[in-house]
Amino acid sequence: MNTVTIIGLGYIGSSIGFALRTKYGSKIKITGYDSDQSAQNNAKKVGAVTHTAWNLSNAVKDAELVIVSTPPGVIEEIFASIAGHIDPSCVVTDTAVTKRKIVEWAENHLPGQFVGGNPLVGGLQGNNEEPSGYIFSSASWALVTPKKTPGRVIKKVTDLLDDLGANPFFLDPVEHDSFTAATVGLPTILSATLMNIISQSPSWHEMSKFSGPNLDMVTKPAASDPAISIGSISTNNDMLIDWINRSIDSLISIKSQLLPERMTDDNEPLINVFVQAWEERARLDIGVADRRKNTQDRPEIPTASEGMMSIFFGNRFARIIGGSNKKKDKNKVEYDRKRLR
Question: What's the CA angle centered on 13, arms 7 and 16, to 5 degrees?
Answer without folding.
Answer: 120
